[in-house]
Write a structure and sequence with these properties.
By secondary structure, the protein is mainly alpha-helical. The protein has six helices and no strands.
Length: 136
């Protein structure tokens, strides 16, 4: 059960990350409704550097944001399927998904909307139960 819950949790993360990546590059779902905002983002740079625009930074932030959950899944799914004993014998590997889940849940609650919040919450529940079974 601990193995299955961990795989379910990181699979949800993978789906959320992949969906976000598709939305970033292949749809206009993350574009602002207000065209003036889009134009302003394309026409100004962050104070940090003139080497990019706010729009290009926005796209890059969204793309890199997508890669985190996908990387977690790319690491944990094969590890859980092929070498679950490594996770069971390591407090670090058993609790890392919990820590990541808590951080993403805070971000989801503070900055995002209901669907990613619920997905992260379900993943976190899977991570917590899995870690609890592993470590007790």
């Amino acid at each position: 059960m601990d193995q299955i819950l961990l795989i379910i949790g990181v699979s949800i993360f993978a789906i959320l990350g992949a969906t976000h990546l598709v939305y970033t590059f292949f749809t206009k779902k993350l574009n602002p409704y207000n065209e003036e905002v889009f134009t302003a983002m394309e026409g100004t740079s962050p104070r940090l550097t003139k080497e990019t625009t706010m729009w290009r930074a926005w796209v890059g932030f969204n793309a890199s944001h997508s890669l985190g959950p996908m990387l977690l899944a790319a690491f944990y799914i094969p590890l859980a399927v092929n070498n679950f004993e490594i996770i069971k014998n390591s407090i670090w590997f058993s609790l890392l998904p919990v820590a990541v889940g808590v951080l993403y849940l805070v971000l989801a609650k503070t900055y995002w909307f209901k669907i990613p919040f619920m997905g992260v919450l379900i993943s976190l529940a899977c991570f917590v139960i899995s870690a609890w079974i592993i470590n007790t």
